[in-house]
Amino acid sequence: MHIEPTKKRRHRIRDLVLYLAISLAVAGTFVALALLGMSRDKFLKLDFFFFYTLGAFGFFVERSKALLRKPLFWTFLTCSFLLHCGISWLIFARVKHVNSDWIAAGVLEAAFLVAAAKRLFRPTPSPQ
């Protein structure tokens, strides 16, 4: 994976501040949950959900860079994310423990999102 460096200094500073803010928010959330006495199982489920979601949707966004400027892409991403959160909540509410076998579900979900986006955003065939 190759990431082009941002050319303008103010954009680099903005990106750095944004990355730091996101990191602090995530770390702060985990620290707060640990200090509030959340049970170990719930904490591990939340931790797993966070990294599972980050992996699936991070892969999806990385593979869909050409679509980032399309409003329909962001609608699709938002709806997919909300559906993902809802289904994950239902599943995690019913299982006692999560294990590494669930990583396969994240890989399948990411592959499904990429395939769905390719199908949804493929060019319309021109009439001949």
Gap from first CA to last CA: 39 Å
Largest sheet: none
Give the topology string: H per helix, E per strand. Answer: HHHH
The outline comes out as flat
Binned strand content: under 5%
Structural class: mainly alpha
Radius of gyration from the alpha-carbon trace, in angstroms = 18 Å
The helix content is: over 70%
Mean pLDDT: 80
Number of strands: 0
Number of discrete helical segments: 4
Poorly predicted ranges:
none
Quaternary structure = single chain
Description:
By secondary structure, this protein is mainly α. The protein folds into 2 domains: 1-37; 39-121. The protein contains 4 helices and no strands. It has helices at residues 9-35, 40-63, 71-94, 103-121. It is flat. The mean pLDDT is 80.
Brief rundown of the structure:
This protein is mostly helical and about 130 residues long.
Key terms:
73% helix, 2 domains, 4 helices, 128 residues, mainly alpha, flat
Indicate the topology.
Blueprint (H helix, E strand, L loop, with lengths): L8 H27 L4 H24 L7 H24 L8 H19 L7
Helix pairs in contact: 2-3, 2-4
